[in-house]
Amino acid sequence: MLVLAAGLFVPSALVEVSARDETVATVKVNCAHGESINTALKQHPNAQTLIIQIDGMCNENVVVTRDRVTLRGTDPSTDGVQAVENATQIDAAVWVRGAHQGSIENLRLTGGFDGLLASEVSSPSLRVINCRLEGNTNYGAVIEASLLEVEDSAFSSNGFVSAGVFQASRLQCTRCTMSDPGGGVGPAVRSNIINFSASSLLLSDTMLNNGGINSFASSVSINDCTINGFGSTGASFVDGQSTVNLIRTQLAGQINLNGASNTVLLGVTQNPGTLPNLLDNAAFVRIGDASPSTGGPPSIPSNLRGFTLRDFSTGSLLQSSHISGSLNCNSGANAFCANPANVSGTSNCALCPKP
């Protein structure tokens, strides 16, 4: 027994239990033996950090509600979570609910309404590293009032879109691929990402195939990416009431800007197509050259299709950037060109006259 200064006695057993409290605990889950990630999450309740090592594909809907949890596999081609319920949005393969400083690594998340649902997650963010979010009935990932950082991961063949960013959330994706979503916002548009309701999207070194981006009342920052819309004439980018910056990015498909959106395109190139880009309802776009990310030429010019500007929209074509097509201004719209010769077609815009 220990004797305290005040003359109180503390049983030695209590001291020993306290000494055994863990800073980091690791639990191994062998899915082939019927072991459960949800059961593992209840173990070591006093550990500050819990690491769950996952071997194989576990058939369950995992719900994480405790802080500092890492779900870790070895190879996303063999390890992960196959959801057993997918009727509603909370039926995710993995739902991280109000839990902070978590990480999901080297796993495949499939078979759910969503592969990943993150709700009320921040401090500083939930991290997803080297994962595959594929084959879910609606979303690869849904982010609601949360901060999500994704690295070296793939989203593919999800029934609606690859990622939905809602309710003042932030999705940051580095070296990701997103491809072949089943739907989008609007009957003619397939979207890899929808970014709504005061949310933020940050993409770097990322490729989007067979589906673009739809943003409304939010912000978008894209560097060194490739975005291919659905087909050569489908939208790569649909934007309403958002602030958008694209730098050193390759686009295929139409750019559609509306609703007083504010967009900057620097060093952005676009594949030829039958549809011109569209600015509508007091949208603004500035097109110019970008500095190289590392080395290379002193500047990288933008080279875009033609634009149709309507309803008091405005545009600026600056530096050596080029429009391979015409500028068509109507209904109070206008466009300025630093050099009208950088428009290959005609222009009826007052600040960029070119017959």
What does this 3D model show about the protein?
- With 355 residues, the protein is mainly β.
- It has a domain at 160-354.
- 3% of the residues lie in helices and 49% in strands.
- It has 2 helices and 40 strands.
- The strands form 5 sheets. Strands 3-4-7-10-13-16-19-22-25-28-31-34-36-38 form a 14-stranded parallel beta sheet, with no helix packed on it. A 12-stranded parallel beta sheet has the order 6-9-12-15-18-21-24-27-30-33-35-37, with no helix packed on it.
- A hairpin with a 2-residue loop joins strand 39 and strand 40 (352-354).
- It is elongated, with a radius of gyration of 25 Å.
Topology:
Elements: E1 2-3, E2 9-10, H1 12-19, E3 24-30, H2 37-40, E4 49-55, E5 57-59, E6 62-64, E7 69-72, E8 80-82, E9 92-97, E10 103-105, E11 108-110, E12 114-119, E13 126-129, E14 132-134, E15 139-144, E16 147-151, E17 154-156, E18 161-166, E19 170-174, E20 177-179, E21 191-196, E22 200-204, E23 207-209, E24 212-216, E25 219-223, E26 226-228, E27 235-240, E28 243-247, E29 250-252, E30 254-258, E31 262-266, E32 269-270, E33 277-279, E34 284-288, E35 303-309, E36 314-317, E37 322-329, E38 334-337, E39 347-349, E40 352-354
Parallel strand pairs: 3-4, 4-7, 5-8, 6-9, 7-10, 8-11, 9-12, 10-13, 11-14, 12-15, 13-16, 14-17, 15-18, 16-19, 17-20, 18-21, 19-22, 20-23, 21-24, 22-25, 23-26, 24-27, 25-28, 26-29, 27-30, 28-31, 29-32, 30-33, 31-34, 33-35, 34-36, 35-37, 36-38
Antiparallel strand pairs: 1-2, 39-40
